[in-house]
Design a protein that fits this description.
By secondary structure, the chain is mainly beta. It has a domain of about 300 residues: YVTN repeat-like/Quinoprotein amine dehydrogenase (Methylamine Dehydrogenase, Chain H). About 5% of the residues lie in helices and about 30% in strands. The chain has one helix and 30 strands. A hairpin with a 6-residue loop joins strand 21 and strand 22. The longest helix is centred in the N-terminal third of the chain and has 18 residues. It is extended.
Length: about 550
C-alpha cells in the first residue's frame, strides 16, 4: 500500500476516535422550542418566586408557609421576574446572559428564550399575558416581545438611561421611565410610534398601571406617588409617602398601592399602605432592614430584604409582619401569583438546596454536590443514593437490613457454618487443598458448587534435569593487517597532592620558558639590503655682498 494512502487512513482513524471515543464529551441538550405549560389543569396554589442572582436559580416558595418548595436552575444572573396572569408561565430576565427565559411555572422546565444583545434592567407584562416590555439601561433601549414565542417585535431607541417599564392592561401602550432626566416616555405599541417624553421632574424609579389605565409613578427624589393620565401625561394627584422610596406594588383591583421605603444607613425600612381611592397614606409597617422588591398574592404582601437574605410576609389589614423566612441565599427580584398549577413531584424539575448524596462504605461519608447549572430544557433533580438489592441505606450510607430485625451475616471462609443467623467466630483457617469435584449420579442435576474464595497455589512443577551446556570454542585470533600502527597511549600525569589542614600547601615551581625553534631552521635569515644614498641637489653659490660707501662727516660751524 502506498505510504500516502496509509497516512490518509491513519488520519481518518484518529478523527473517528476523537469524535466517538473517550475524548468526546456529551454536549448540552438542544434548546427546546417554545411550548405550552405541561400542567394546565388540576389543583392550583399561591406561589412566590424569588430570583437568586449569585446561585443562578429561582426559588419557589409556598405563599402560606414560606417554605422553599423547589429551585429552578436558570442561566447566568437572573434579576427580574414576572408571572403571566394565568399563573402558568414565569419570565426571567438575566443580566449577564443578556436574555429572557420562559419557564413553566409549575415544573420549571424551559419553554423558550430570547437573546437581547444587551443587559435587561426591568421587565413588564400586559394584562392579557401576550406582550413583554424589556428595558436595557446600558444602551438606552426598550424591546417589545411576544410573550407566546419570545420573538422581538420592536426595538425602541430612546437614548440616555432608561429604567422601569409598564404596559397598559390592553397591551396597546407602554411606558418607560428615564430617572436621570425625570421623564416618562410613552410608547404607542400599535404603530411603533414614540411620542414626545413627559417631563414630571424628580426621579421616577417604579411604574405600575391600574385596570382603568391610570399610570402610577413613584418619585424617589420627592418621596411621592403620582397618578398620571395615560393619554396626556398630566399629573392627576400627588401623594407624599416619605423619603427613601424604593419599590412599588399595585393590587389586581387597582385600589391599594404598597410603597417600600428604605431608611438611612444603619436604620430599618418600612412598607406604606396607600388607599388610591381616597388618596391617603394608611398604615406604615416597619421592617428591620430596607425592603427590596414587592409582590402581592393570597391577600398578603411579600417583600424581600436583600441585606438579610429574608422573605417577609406582611398583613396589610393589621399593619404588621405576619411571618418571615431566611432563604440563606442572596436574592433580587420577586414575583407572585395566586393560581400556579401544582405539579407532581416526579414532574417538577426541582433542585433541593441541602440534600447531598452519600457514598456508601464510609463512616463519615463525603457528600457529592448536586448539579444546579442551566436547565437547558431538562429536569434537574437530586441524585438518589445507590442501594444494594434487598437492602436499605443505613445510617452511614451503607446497606442495612432489608426487613425485620435480621442482621446481615458477614463474609465467612468456606467451611465455617452459621446457625440461626449467628456468624461463626472467625479463626485463622489454612488454605484447603483442592479436591476432585463432586460427580452427580446418573439422572441427577449436579449441585452448584460454592465459589472457592481461598484457593491454594499449586506447587510449581519440578524441572527436568538439563544437560550441561557445551563450552563454545575459543575464537581464533585475527591477525592485524600489516602497516597499521597502533598509537601509544600516554599515561595521565601524576595528580598533585590535595592539601589537608595539617599539611603545608605545596609549592608550585614555575616551569622554565620554552623557546620555540625557528620556522625554517635550515635557511639562515636574509639580512635586509642596505639603503642606497641619494645625493642632495647642488645649490647655487650665494651672491657676495658689497660694502656700502661711508658718508663724509659733516662739520658744524662754531660761532
Amino acid at each position: 500500500m502506498p505510504r500516502s494512502r496509509r497516512f490518509s487512513l491513519l488520519v481518518l482513524a484518529l478523527a473517528v476516535l476523537v469524535a466517538c471515543g473517550p475524548f468526546s464529551r456529551p454536549g448540552p441538550a438542544p434548546t427546546p422550542r417554545p411550548g405550552r405549560s405541561e400542567v394546565t389543569g388540576g389543583e392550583r396554589a399561591p406561589r412566590v418566586f424569588v430570583a437568586s442572582t449569585p446561585l443562578d436559580q429561582v426559588l419557589v416558595v409556598d405563599a402560606n408557609s414560606l417554605q422553599v418548595l423547589a429551585r429552578y436552575p436558570t442561566d447566568s444572573a437572573p434579576s427580574r421576574l414576572v408571572v403571566s396572569p394565568d399563573g402558568t408561565r414565569l419570565y426571567v430576565a438575566h443580566q449577564d446572559a443578556k436574555l429572557v427565559l420562559a419557564l413553566d411555572a409549575a415544573t420549571g422546565r424551559e419553554l423558550g428564550r430570547a437573546a437581547l444583545g444587551a443587559r435587561p434592567s426591568e421587565i413588564a407584562i400586559d394584562g392579557g399575558g401576550t406582550r413583554l416590555l424589556v428595558t436595557s439601561a446600558d444602551v438606552g433601549e426598550a424591546r417589545l416581545l411576544d410573550a407566546r414565542d419570545l420573538s422581538v417585535r420592536q426595538v425602541y431607541q430612546m437614548g440616555g438611561q432608561v429604567g422601569a417599564a409598564a404596559l397598559s392592561p390592553d397591551g396597546q401602550r407602554g411606558y418607560v421611565a428615564r430617572p436621570t432626566a425625570g421623564e416618562i416616555v410613552p410608547l404607542d405599541l400599535a404603530d411603533a410610534n414614540t411620542p414626545g417624553a413627559w417631563s414630571l421632574g424628580g426621579r421616577p424609579i417604579a411604574l405600575a398601571t391600574a385596570p382603568d389605565g391610570t399610570l402610577y409613578v413613584l418619585d424617589a427624589a420627592g418621596g411621592a406617588l403620582l397618578a398620571v393620565d395615560p393619554a396626556s401625561g398630566a399629573t392627576r394627584n400627588r401623594l407624599a409617602v416619605g423619603s427613601g422610596a424604593i419599590g412599588l406594588a399595585l393590587d389586581a383591583a387597582g385600589r391599594t398601592a404598597y410603597v417600600g421605603l428604605g431608611g438611612d444607613a444603619g436604620a430599618g425600612g418600612a412598607v406604606v399602605v396607600v388607599d388610591l381611592a381616597s388618596g391617603q397614606a394608611g398604615k406604615r409597617i416597619p421592617l428591620d432592614a430596607p425592603p427590596g422588591a414587592l409582590a402581592i398574592a393570597a391577600g398578603s404582601v411579600y417583600a424581600t430584604v436583600p441585606t438579610r437574605e429574608q422573605l417577609v410576609q406582611l398583613d396589610p389589614a393589621a399593619g404588621s409582619v405576619r411571618a418571615s423566612a431566611s432563604l440563606s441565599d442572596p436574592i433580587a427580584g420577586i414575583a407572585a401569583s395566586n393560581q400556579v398549577p401544582v405539579a407532581a413531584p416526579a414532574v417538577a424539575a426541582r433542585v433541593p438546596s441541602v440534600q447531598p448524596t452519600a457514598t456508601p462504605g464510609f463512616a463519615e461519608a463525603p457528600v457529592i454536590p448536586t448539579y444546579v447549572g442551566p436547565s437547558g430544557g431538562r429536569p434537574v433533580t437530586a441524585t438518589p443514593a445507590p442501594t444494594v438489592a434487598g437492602t436499605t441505606p443505613g445510617p452511614a450510607g451503607g446497606a442495612g437490613a432489608s426487613s425485620g430485625d435480621a442482621v446481615p451475616t458477614p463474609l465467612a471462609p468456606p467451611g465455617a457454618a452459621s446457625q440461626s443467623g449467628t456468624p461463626a467466630p472467625a479463626s485463622p483457617v489454612a488454605a484447603p487443598t483442592p479436591g476432585p469435584p463432586a460427580v452427580a449420579a446418573p439422572g441427577q442435576t449436579p449441585a452448584p458448587q460454592p465459589p472457592d474464595v481461598f484457593q491454594s497455589i499449586p506447587a510449581p512443577p519440578t524441572p527436568s534435569p538439563q544437560p550441561a551446556p557445551t563450552a563454545p570454542p575459543a575464537p581464533s585470533p585475527v591477525p592485524l593487517p600489516t602497516g597499521v600502527s597502533i598509537p601509544t597511549i600516554r599515561p595521565f600525569p601524576t595528580p598533585l597532592p590535595i592539601p589537608t589542614p595539617l599539611s603545608p600547601l605545596p609549592i608550585f615551581s614555575t616551569p622554565p620558558p620554552v623557546l620555540l625553534p625557528p620556522l625554517n631552521p635550515t635557511l639562515p635569515p636574509t639580512p635586509p639590503p642596505a639603503p642606497t644614498l641619494v645625493p642632495l641637489p647642488t645649490l647655487p653659490p650665494l651672491p657676495t655682498l658689497q660694502p656700502s660707501a661711508t658718508p663724509a662727516p659733516t662739520s658744524t660751524p662754531t660761532r
